[in-house]
Every structure is written in C-alpha cells, then in structure tokens.
Amino acid sequence: MRTVGSILRETREAKFYTLDEIEKATKIRKELLAALEADDYSKLPPTTFVQGFIKNYSRFLGLDSQKLLAIYRREFSERRHQPYVMNAFSKPPSVSRLKLTPGRLLGGVVALVILAFFAYLWIQYRGFASAPELKISSPADQLTIDNPTLQIAGETEQEAKVTVNGQEIPVNVDGQFKEEITLSSPVNKIEISAVSKFGQKSQVERTVYLKR
C-alpha cells in the first residue's frame, strides 16, 4: 500500500521538482521534507505540525490534501496500535541446558571423592617430601649479651624433633619449644634443627656474642 511519503515523492519526481525548490515554495526545511517522503516520522515534529506539512506540500503539488491526510491518519493509527503479541510467543521460554539427573548427581559425588583423595595424597606427599617449617623467635642473630644464660625459643611442625647444637630439647603438642642453654665462650655458634618424622630436616644458625 502506498504511503503519504511515497505519494509525495513520486509526484514531486514526476513533476521534476527538487527538494530545494519545494523548500523555497512551502517554507518547510529540506531535511523535514526528506523525512516526510521517507515516512521517517521519528525525525519530524508532533503530528499537528506534520499534518500542516502534508497539507502545504500536497497543495503545492496539486494533490488532494484531504485524501493524503486521511492516509496519514490511518498510518498514524496503525503505528500507535501495533498488534499485541503475547510474551510467551515473542520470547519463548529459555530451555536450561543443564538438567540434574540421578546419574549426573552420582557422577559429581564420585568426582568430588576422587578429588578429595588426590588432595589428601598431595598433602601427604608434601609432608613426606618437604622439610618441616622452623621459626626461631629467640635469640636474634648477632645478639650480644652479658649473661651466659641464653633462652632458645621457637616453633616448628607437630611431631618434629628439635635439637640445639645436637642436643634434643622438648617440643609441646603445638610444635612450640623453649629451652635455656649456658654459653661458655665469647663467640657462640648455635645450630637449631627440626627433623620431621620422615627424616626431612630444617636448620637455622644463630651467632651470639658473650661479654666478659
């Protein structure tokens, strides 16, 4: 069905008018005339002004303005009352791609059990292959004291054995240890070692100076 815009454009072209000439004759800006011929009402002012444009333009071209206005009103009404489409048809419900079934649930549980098993093996391997962590809080390295009694304190992993210069000292259940030793020389090299139950060893050395 022909529209208002197509009728105006075809008539103008048949009479060899340009938009510039129509603009001068009707006092309607050329960009508005182009939008009207293209039926692009989004670029045009409110409907009252559009009807005035159609009336002036059609009269200049020698067309029946009332017939064109009737076509325009029909087009305008159709644009305002688009057929209603239910959302259920315009937007079909999305189908979930992931469906939980007993088989998938069992497979997920088995995968989690296997993952936990390998994590346990990894932790055990780390404990077997790595030396125990050893932190010494006392004494500080390069410490100078004037009292021959020196306190050794620190922390290591549970079940590790701690020695100070080859002598084993007690370690509590949290891996903490504290022991006093007596210094006998001005320069004292102190070796603190922690040995895991798998035989892996960590060692820290401290040098302590004794004033005489």
Molecular structure report:
- The chain has 212 residues and is an alpha+beta fold.
- It has 2 domains: 4-80, 434 Repressor (Amino-terminal Domain); 134-210, Sandwich (Immunoglobulin-like).
- The protein contains 7 helices and 8 strands; from the N terminus they run H-H-H-H-H-H-H-E-E-E-E-E-E-E-E.
- Helix 1 (4-14) runs parallel beside helix 4 (47-61) and helix 4 runs antiparallel to helix 5 (65-80).
- Residues 81-90 have low confidence and may be disordered.
Name some characteristics of this structure.
single chain; 212 residues; alpha+beta; 434 Repressor (Amino-terminal Domain); Immunoglobulin-like; rod-shaped
Please state roughly what percent of the residues sit in beta strands, choosing from under 5%, 5-15%, 15-25%, 25-35%, 35-45% or over 45%: 15-25%
User: Termini, distance in Å?
Assistant: 116 Å
- CATH A-level architecture of the largest domain: Orthogonal Bundle
- The spatial strand order of the largest sheet comes to 2-8-7-4-5
Multimerization state: single chain
Mean of all residue-level pLDDT scores: 86
Q: How would you sum up the global shape?
A: rod-shaped
Query: What is the fold-level CATH name, i.e. the topology of the largest domain?
Result: 434 Repressor (Amino-terminal Domain)
Number of domains: 2
Largest sheet: 5 strands, mixed
Going by CATH, the homologous superfamily of the largest domain would be lambda repressor-like DNA-binding domains
CATH C-level label of the largest domain = Mainly Alpha
Indicate the percent of residues in helices. 40-55%
In DSSP terms, counting alpha (H) and pi (I) runs of 4 or more, how many helices? Answer: 7
Low-confidence regions:
81-90
Whole-number radius of gyration?
Answer: 47 Å
- SSE string: HHHHHHHEEEEEEEE
Structural class: alpha+beta
